[in-house]
Amino acid sequence: LTPLLPHLDHRSRGMRTRLGCLSHKSDSYNDFTAILPDKPNRALKRLSTEEATRWADSFDVLLSHKYGLAAFRAFLKTEFSEENLEFWLACEDFKKTRSAAKLASKAQRIFDEFIDVQAPREVNIDFQTRELTRRNVQEPSLSCFDQAQGKVHSLMEKDSYPRFLRSKIYTDLLSQTQRRLS
């Protein structure tokens, strides 16, 4: 029972977050303390309009920027689809695994959390990709999630990213960086 408690605590926190989002149901942020990592006021002061504008150049530019990633995560939370980004980030972390002993357990953890049917944070991938990934995890390598990660990346890039660029989260953030200049 004890190993389940952190998991249950994590789930109840997630539920509170989702319920909180429902009560507000707005993707507008006037106070960016919730989305910017570390010290939000200092972060917002350091974020230039040029940097925030560059996030619109490409999805990968957005993902590679610390504050862009945080803003995109906040946006995905309003759409209840943050599991896509969390899976993508888990795969990026997985590719840095150097210990063969940790490879199998990390692969299984990612599969159980994001890929398996009825996973707690199941990502939307097709049956063939799910089955290929299931086979890959049996003999894990650093590339065992590549196809699934690519599908999720493509889904976010074609679907969520354009909505993020039109969202109030992004436009409000740009406005705040521009207001600092005037």
Automatic annotation (TrEMBL):
Upper classification of the organism: Eukaryota, Metazoa, Chordata, Craniata, Vertebrata
Compartments, record wording: Cell membrane; Cell projection, Dendrite; Nucleus; Perikaryon
Broad class of the protein's primary localization: membrane
UniProt keyword list: Cell membrane, Cell projection, Membrane, Nucleus, Signal transduction inhibitor
Gene: Rgs8
InterPro entries named in the record: RGS (IPR016137), RGS_RGS8 (IPR034949), RGS_sf (IPR036305), RGS_subdom1/3 (IPR024066), RGS_subdomain_2 (IPR044926)
Organism: Erithacus rubecula
GO cellular component term of the entry, any: nucleus
Pfam families in the record: RGS
One BP term from GO: negative regulation of signal transduction
Protein name: Regulator of G-protein signaling 8
Membrane topology qualifier: Peripheral membrane protein
Domain RGS as annotated: residue spans: 58-174
